[in-house]
Fold each of these.
Amino acid sequence: MYFSYFNYWICIILLMIGLYTVMSRSNLVKKLIGLSLFQISVFLFYISMGKISGGTAPIVVEALEGAPEPVYSNPLPHVLILTAIVVGVATTALGLSLVVRIKEAFGTIDEDEILELESEEDK
Amino acid sequence: MVFLSTHLPILTVVIPLLSAAVCALLKGKNLPWALTTIISAISFLMSIQLLLEVNVSGPISYELGSWAPPWGIEYLVDPLNAFLLLIISGISTGVLLYARDSIASEVPEKQQGLFYAAYLLALTGMLGICITGDAFNIFVFLEIMSLSSYVLIAAGAPQDKRALTAAYQYLIIGTVGATFFLIGVGLLYVMTGTLNLADIASRFSEIEDTRPIRAAVGFLVVGIVIKLALFPFHVWLPNGYTYAPSVVTAFFAGTATKVSVYLLIRFIYTVFGGDYSFGIIDLADILLPLAVIGFLSMSAVAIFQKNIKRLLAYSSVAQLGYMVLGISLASESGLTASLVHVFNHAIVKTGLFLSVGCMFYAVGSVYLKDLEGIGQRMPITTFGFVLGGLGLIGVPLTPGFISKWYLILAALEKGSYLGYALVTAVLVSSLLAVIYIWRVVEVAYFRSPPEGTEKAEAPLSMLVPCWIFILGSFYFGIDTTINVGFAEAATSFLLGGS
Amino acid sequence: MVIAQFIDIFLMFLLVAGALTVLTVRNLFVATMMLGIVSFVMALVFISLDAVDVAFTEAAVGAGISTVLYIGTLALVGSEEKAGIKIAPAPMAICLAVGAVLVYATYQMPSYGNADNPVHTHVAPRYIQVSPTEIGVPNMVTSVLSSYRGFDTFGETTVVFTAGIGVLLILSQRRRRKPGEEEEKPAARNGHGRNLLGIGSDHDLIPHVIAKLLIPFILLFALYVQFHGDYGPGGGFQAGVIFAAGFILYALIFGLQLAQRVLSQNAVLYLIAFGVLLYGGVGVVGILLGGNFLDYNVLSSDPVSGQHLGILLIELGVGITVAAAMLAIYYAFVGRADPVSKLPD
């Protein structure tokens, strides 16, 4: 292998970009987009650890006569990430529905403007 | 009933889950409420049975799909999580007894089926997190609990539109926390090749001195602590508690953050082991200062709140500080103190939030300025609030006293300087609690009600459950066999077993 | 091999470039599309990492359904970000710290792709070696997903159910209007928003014809994915998403009313709950027949055919709940914009 940790580093870079988007942007939709990115990076982390070099997808194939037994990659991380993807889209859907209602209630989806409106509410 | 007893662990979780699917389809306001209450009560009875069973005959393992762990998912009930199951289902049932009229006044009738379904899902999530013995399964149920709590908080929007932003904020922070947890689980998995908690624990000593494990501990602890709302990760909690419907606030105050306290204990003691968590790397170095700063500063912040729900929410963050302090003392007595406080605070705080819910029902606001003279307008409710407040402060005969007593004893064990400093901090924080409770008392009893308001109590259906919690808290302040007894059993199981 | 590695590395750089664009671009439509592209590229990376099922799902969800939801939201809330690009020091410091911890961790991680890693030697071998005979299903991901870790998948179905009813609850709330407040026109009423939100158009001939051609195949493909998940990539979740996509396409082209005449909002709610109950019901039947919850061996006299039956039924439950939940979420978003029937009064 040329880069034995290359995949993991890409995960880390994506994770940092996603987390930074969540924390630094004040637009509520943009935050959710960042959150999706943050989650996607973790998916890559899990899938990378399940890979075996020279392996194949974990679906049984008939080995040809005389060919070596196929090596299958680990199916468990795949299962976990299937679940995590579903959880991710569920969270996104819920977050977006909140954004729609916030827009209706406050007239804006900018966090700073909402904070101002909220502090007025308390007076 | 051999049939029931072997399947108790799964039934405790799955019955509320399946009922949620039924509940979402029910129309009207009474039917969903009745179903939810009955189901929660059934869960409560089953948790009592489980708790008694594990304390007599030891941990129960249940293999889902009949696949032996670590290949399948395992439910593992021991004295620690059985104690938590009891608290969660018990608080939930008590709150539901109260819920009907309160929810009827705060949530539109058309939505109540969905609302109660979300409530049941939150309950399912919490029970599932506590009972499972599988790291990834914790994540799945954590998300069930979290998603339903965002929905439940947002259900406060018809009363105050800020519920929407509170839910959104919690969604963002909660998801970041859960994803951190997921990264931590991934790192553990990459090093051990398994997801079963007991299996990870058994392989932990071989690999404990590696960098990925240290990072895993970091991610897991940070992820859990975000969900736990420990200072400085607490920002989502006050907003969420303030704008959620009264019933939801009372339910969460008693249960949601306790689940995270449980997770912290579970990972520190069962998975990493106490020797590793407090010896090889010292988590106490981080947790203890955060806990102390947390309960001091949050008690102080609570004093300046204009809204009782927000005041109590900050007080909750402070109380979580006590629980984490107990854990980070890294001793048997500290852990017992922490668990006792989990139980006691659940009862006291739920009672307080329920009495505030009565005030909201009658007055339509929980801002202090709108509650002047509430002691004359709602004498029974307000008196309940005051009694609950005494429990929060920790006056003798109340459960707050019991937990602080254990906490102080545990702190003194720490030895001279640190011990005395911690005791002082706890006492100062209690004094601050006197001040914030007193602010409410002053507004309630020493200001005259605005002109033209009449005496108007909340209906009995709300007052009675509220007083059950208040009186119950006094019972557990005097007779401590249940709370202290089971907490000690859980502690000795954890420390003896590992 | 070298070419394959080159492609991998190229895709990874595309990912990073896409992510950076998402961060910096100010137009939210562009950001959404870039996120979809990142998801799609990620799906390609997953294929090269042997995770075909995950790739399928990521493509259907990340690049498909999520993008539809984002665009539906943007049509309602506007697509321009207000603040310009500024560097926020505190978040930057936190991100760098998190990244540093992870880089620190990678240096003692088992090296990538090595078959001797703990991940490959402890729990997984049983799934790979025994599951084809024990479960009788060639796709090991399906075996693990629906049998060994079937309870996680039940939890996952519950998460989808939660999101479905959650969105319904949140988006059916009526706004309390203060007296004298002006009725605000939703952005979707004018111009482009209409079609995006599926109010339908009467005179676009080409989309009508093409949709009529496509939709039967989409639905058929969904059924194929649903029932072929044992043998190839796919299963209930992917099938549900594709099925929902077919319906959403129909609603986009022919209007929400017609789509709801086929599958009304109420029916959708019933279906969401039905899927969960079907899944849980299989588990309960396992108990009644003397096994544990979700034990499929007892469903039939022969364990392997029991497993087959159990997997078939629970995958069906997943498919129904997912398809119905996605549709319910879509209906709820569109209902929010529909100027005729659903505006707050």
Note: Chain B touches chain A through 28 residues (CB under 8 Å).
Amino acid sequence: MLDAPARLAGTAGGAAWTRKDLLDTDSLSREEIELVLETARSMKEVRSRPVAKVPTLRGVTVATLFYEQSTRTRASFEVAAKSLGADVVNLTASGSSVEKGESLIDTVRTLEAIGTDVIVMRHFRSGAPYLAARHTGASIINGGDGTHAHPTQALLDLFTMVNHLGSVEGRRVVIVGDILHSRVARSNAWTLLRLGAEVTLCGPATLLPRWFVPEVPGGGRCTVTTDFDRAIEGADVVMALRMQKERQQRGLIPSLREYIAGYQVNAQRLGRAAPGALLMHPGPMNEGVELSPDVAHGAQSRIEEQVANGVAVRMALLYLIAARSRA
Amino acid sequence: MNDILLVRGGRVLDPAAGLDAVLDVLVANGVVAAIGPGLEAAGARVLDAGGCIVAPGFVDLHAHLREPGFEQKGTIATETEAALRGGFTTVCAMPNTRPAPDCGPVLESIVDLVRRHARVRVFPIGCVTRERAGKELAELAELAAGGVVAFSDDGSPVADPRLMRNALALAEALGLPLSEHCDTPEMHTSGAMNEGAVSERLGLSGQPAAAEATAVARNIELAAATGARLHIAHVTTARAVELVAEAKARGLPVTCEVTPSHLFLTEAAVAGDGPEPAYDTNAKINPPLRTEADRRALLRGLEAGVIDAIATDHAPHAVEDKLVEFEDAAFGISCFESAAGTVFTLAARGELRIERAIAALTSGPAACFGLAERAPGVGRLEPGVSRDVVVIDPAAEWVVDPAGWVSKGKNTPLGGRRLTGAVRAVIIDGTLRWEREGASV
């Protein structure tokens, strides 16, 4: 029996969490997303207490298994797990048995055998968490896989938007940058469309998906465009993505200079969005590339808030998943 | 010892010989002795083929037997036994072995392995370039003298157009076709699947259809310039089929093949049919499974005769080659034991005429590589000449269970699928070599 904090009902509109794993946002129902948001609100309240810690997940072991470097996602999960009283084991691919050639399946089975309940996994290969989830009884939370999905980032972004906008239904969200290689863009698009937002994916032609038109029954609309100045017009949310410098070397963009000219969010462009539009970035940010410094730290920036909300959302997910496995 | 066999009352179907009637086939003294109604032979073993199709043994232009060098994936013995059970009596072996047959002595050692272990007739294909590395030409004349039926660096397209032109010119002089894996790898990095809606959803690197079409177009022009016989291995895109049709209309000696996998499946197989993506590494094949529009274009191309042959691209792998992250998994599908089932399922669904399917499994491939010149009667039912016969039950329903396969490769995306049409018996060199357990024949 979990020692749940007050207001942690674990249901929203009658929905209950039944998933062993959280691998993507494509397959999440509207009810499941709303359940995460509702639970995250309770967790945010916990985080606001003088002693921001509850013993809810005492006896639960959470492992972070990162095959790719990360600061914020890993730290965020670690703080989230510890805030709920879980034990945390951190593993990285470098300096571990993975470097000696151990397969992913063997690694997750080993973690399960030593009593790990939840594995938070980041991997440079798309789909790796699915492989892991099929071969372990432990729950897998996808902390980002290749260019595929980053569901916890999308849920914390959504939580941040909902906190300001009340709802994203009918709201216009523009995601700008290297959409093609962005797991954040994919997961955000699915989540936002599921909740009825209008999503515009914008970037240079070589960094845009050509066929990505997600079909979400009863969901919002998705537009793909190269014209950022038009796309940002009247937007309620502008989300810029990290532009990797290697894209220039690979011939995908002529130069960062040209990218900045066409796609950097600056004060002038942000002025064309809806009044008070939210400016977001999943980090880490190349200041001066995706965002001009003045807007990155300006009044409309929600970037630090995203990071703070990340802990609450990840607490919610750990709680929901661990509670299911103990039920 | 040769059996005397009387295959009675089957639908004898050999489009090349103009045969399509319920007849008997008498097999004696190692050959198809007679075909006709009401045949009798004293002391003959009678196989009741009522309701079955009786056709020439299947001919495969494109298989990977893995030996020498990759015996953990398959051996000549295991994979030719799988071929036999799939109805294939003649198999052309691709040269991606270790060592690769890029000179006479290596070829000789492989021919010797085949002689000792093969369960069906095997023709070797020689390399185009040394170690299939695409840098220097292999010893093509020596390979031709050693008995190769074609040249190919399969799996590794010959990227350098100058080298390809020279290879085609030499192949033409030797009277042999060059079978090319048409891809432009420079257009993608590690393209793990088709570039399109599914790859974008799954975040996987994609191979664009244009990478195939670009290479097909280039190689057709080089074939035209040299007069060589160009065989395009495993076409997968609608545009490639159009380009081959155009080449044939120009009178160029260009042929091509399609795999049962590309006729039967699409890129959707990678994602699986559940609510969460499967990232099914068993559906990872090079060239990749394409779109439904491409699949339909391949079926049309096959029906129209633009595509000459169905070739398996049988590619067995060890379990550990596939039980990894999708982009790290090996390319290839183990196909011998499901090929006939998938092709006849397409026929049962009305997507492919059975007569066309038989032609593409027999006389079509034999003609591409001129195999009847090497083994008379291959791909045909010619009394007094042909030696191989396959009996197929087109209505038999069965569920694919790779665990029961004799191939070392259990890597198929078809596991658990219900197919219609099964091989019941196989005769090679006039001898009944395999009969399906519980078969009515």
Note: The mean pLDDT of chain A is 92.
